[in-house]
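Need residues for this backbone.
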C-alpha cells in the first residue's frame, strides 16, 4: 500500500461509529476524551467547536473537522464561556433517547444538522504522519476543494437518513472512507506539517512508495537510491532531512510496526510474520522487536488479546516521534 493507507491501516481498530443529529435553539454538548479520533461535518446551519485547552473554531455549512488524537471538546451554538461549557450536555444523551427540546426530530425546520462520529485507533505504534496531525484539522467547505471528501459526506449523510437496505455495511465503509479523505485533504494543504513536505518531495516519496510496496524485499541504500533515481548520498540527505531518520532505519521501524499489527490482528505464527516483514528467522524478528518496543512478540500478542492494553514503551518507541504542530489547521 501507499504511505497514507499504511499509516491509517496500522492504527485502525474495530468499527467506526457515527450519528446524524439535528439541534436548535441554545445548545451545548460535550464529547469526552476518546482513545481514537472524532469528526464532525456540518450539513446545515453553523456552530462552534471548543477543543479542551484550545481556541474556538467556527464551523459553517459543509465544513469538516477531524480531532485525530481524541481530544475532549464541546460543540455549541456559540463560542460559549466557561460556565456554559461546564453545563454542557454529554453527547450520548442526544443519541441515547427520544427526540426532545435539545434534539428535535430530523424533520424539524431550522437549527443545525451534523454528522458526528469517531474511530477507535491504536496509538501505541502510530506512524509519524498520524502523530504529526494537529489537535484539530479544520477543512472548510470551499467551492471545488476536496471533491472526494464532499462526495463521501453527501453519501454518508444520505445513508444515515434513509435507512436503506444494506446501510449496515455502507455506513461503516463510508465512515472509514471519510477518514482517508480527511487525512488526504490535510496532506494536500501543503502547510499541513512535515509530512506534506515528505510526500511532496519526489525523491523521498518515491523511496517511501518502494519501501511500503514491498517492505520484505532485500533493500539496500544503493537499491533504494536506484529506485528513486538519484545517487545514494542524495537519497540519504533528502530522506533523512525530511523523514527524520535514514532510509534503512525507517525500514526497520516500519517492518516491526507491521509485525506488531500482525501480532495484534492475526493468529499467524511468528515465523510467517517474520517472512512477511523481511526477517529471515523468528529469532531475528523477536530480537529486533524486543529492542524496539521493550517487550517480546509473545507478550505483546498476549496483552493485545487480553484487551489491547497499551505497552508502556510502545508509544515512546523510536518510530513514533513527537506529536508536532498541535493546534488548528485550516
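Answer:
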Amino acid at each position: 500500500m501507499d504511505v497514507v493507507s499504511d499509516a491509517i491501516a496500522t492504527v485502525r481498530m474495530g468499527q467506526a461509529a457515527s450519528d446524524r443529529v439535528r439541534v436548535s435553539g441554545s445548545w451545548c454538548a460535550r464529547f469526552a476524551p476518546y482513545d481514537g479520533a472524532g469528526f464532525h461535518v456540518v450539513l446545515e446551519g453553523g456552530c462552534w467547536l471548543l477543543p479542551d485547552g484550545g481556541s474556538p473554531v467556527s464551523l459553517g455549512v459543509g465544513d469538516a473537522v477531524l480531532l485525530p488524537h481524541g481530544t475532549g471538546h464541546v460543540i455549541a451554538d456559540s463560542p460559549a464561556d466557561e460556565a456554559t461549557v461546564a453545563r454542557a450536555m454529554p453527547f450520548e444523551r442526544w443519541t441515547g433517547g427520544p427526540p426532545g427540546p435539545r434534539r428535535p426530530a430530523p424533520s424539524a425546520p431550522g437549527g443545525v444538522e451534523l454528522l458526528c462520529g469517531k474511530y477507535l485507533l491504536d496509538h501505541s505504534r502510530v506512524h509519524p504522519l498520524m502523530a504529526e496531525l494537529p489537535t484539530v484539522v479544520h477543512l472548510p467547505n470551499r467551492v471545488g476543494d476536496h471533491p472526494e471528501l464532499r462526495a463521501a459526506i453527501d453519501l454518508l449523510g444520505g445513508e444515515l437518513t434513509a435507512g436503506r437496505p444494506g446501510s449496515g455495511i455502507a455506513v461503516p465503509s463510508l465512515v472509514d472512507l471519510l477518514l482517508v479523505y480527511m487525512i488526504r485533504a490535510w496532506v494536500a494543504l501543503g502547510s499541513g506539517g512535515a509530512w506534506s513536505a515528505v510526500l511532496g518531495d519526489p525523491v523521498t516519496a518515491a523511496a517511501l512508495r518502494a519501501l511500503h510496496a514491498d517492505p520484505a524485499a532485500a533493500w539496500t541504500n544503493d537499491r533504494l537510491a536506484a529506485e528513486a533515481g538519484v545517487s545514494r548520498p542524495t537519497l540519504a540527505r533528502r530522506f533523512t532531512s525530511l523523514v527524520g531518520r535514514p532510509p534503512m532505519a525507517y525500514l526497520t521501524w516500519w517492518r516491526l510496526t507491521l509485525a506488531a499489527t500482525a501480532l495484534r490482528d492475526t493468529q499467524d505464527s511468528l515465523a510467517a510474520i517474520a517472512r512477511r516483514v523481511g526477517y529471515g528467522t523468528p529469532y531475528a524478528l523477536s530480537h529486533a522487536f524486543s529492542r524496539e518496543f521493550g517487550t517480546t512478540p509473545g507478550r505483546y500478542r498476549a496483552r493485545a488479546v487480553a484487551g489491547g492494553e497499551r505497552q508502556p514503551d510502545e508509544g515512546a518507541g523510536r518510530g513514533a516521534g513527537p506529536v508536532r504542530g498541535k493546534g488548528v489547521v485550516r
